[in-house]
Amino acid sequence: VRDARAAFDSGAWSRLAPAKRKQVMIRFAELIEQHGEELALLETLDMGKPISDSLSIDVASAANALRWSGEAIDKIYDEVAATSHDQLGLVTREPVGVVAAIVPWNFPLLMTCWKLGPALSTGNSVVLKPSEKSPLTAIRIAQLAIEAGIPAGVFNVLPGFGHTVGKALALHMDVDTLVFTGSTKIAKQLMIYAGESNMKRVWLEAGGKSPNIVFADAPDLQAAAEAAASAIAFNQGEVCTAGSRLLVENSIKDRFVPMVVEAIKAWKPGNPLDPATNVGALVDTTQLNNVLGYIQAGHDDGAKLVAGGKRVMEETGGTYVEPTIFDGVSNAMRIAKEEIFGPVLSVIGFDSEEEAVAIANDTVYGLAAAVWTSNLSRAHLVGKALRAGSVWINQYDGGDMTAPFGGFKQSGNGRDKSLHAFDKYTELKATWIKL
Fold it and tell me: Where residue 348 falls among pLDDT bands split at 50, 70, 90?
């Protein structure tokens, strides 16, 4: 933190012209792309995701996040307030100073670059704490940042455990802003630490229990079934926006659920280093036992297992679980209420729009949701009624860097991606000039 503060105060980066910072950020993105295979391997070795996803999704999206923020920074203008003729009121944005960024283990490189892009582009210094479960790509890109031209001390990586390093950063009196992606439980604790220290601004992207709502008039039930399968199986279900609650209109439920069961068969656990694998290993044995515990809870609560439900490839010593589907789930069951962070899908029936919205919103989370319908009015009205930061219509998990990402309720505050992300890393200043 001391090095980050000294680097910020020196002005070597914080006072560099935006056009110059842009050039460095673009070079940083290019280096990540050039070292893509190396970074993808580190990502897969660290947390078990398929190597094909690490390369085509994580590395590519991480580089894009840096490039997008860098390209945007010299195209953002300050403002002039509407004042009297003898006053000039300038409204400017300035970097907050030292940013502490704490990122999770499920998308280590991508989540890092979602924070780094706007934080560095706006002129801040950053202290990054990667998850203790997946620190390798963070350490490597710090070296690439220096090669790209980011001055020493501007980007620092501090690996370690949350209860030591994370806590120290959250309590540090010289950290101006803390940004975090992770569990809601830890997010709440970080807010407490901020209040106990210097009232640093805290921006949080926390948990989710996202509803994927399929109405009887969905335009393509096969596409909806395949999307429902991928929404829970992709990245082993270790996704904050995983479509873990599948809400299906009862009039089509007996026909649609078997379609999802059939679609999930395409998602098979395998060696993450095999390019053909689309479901890798869970991050560690702790997460494996957590997921298996929730599967048992589904049985105990009376849900009907219709797909998966077992640990597989145990002879390899790996942490593999079959993508799992429970039917006959009520929203009161643990598997429907709590974030599992694994490939476990809960199917819940409904009879009306009002019931679907009520079930979907009956959660402490509000990160994402999806609606499948051919009715344009229904799509708009249900989409507006859903208390979620992202709503997808006739798709699941769409979007790019141009739109903000974040949650309602206990899924967090603030937004990653888009120009709105710059708000987290800048302070507004009003300067009055007497003419």
Answer: very high
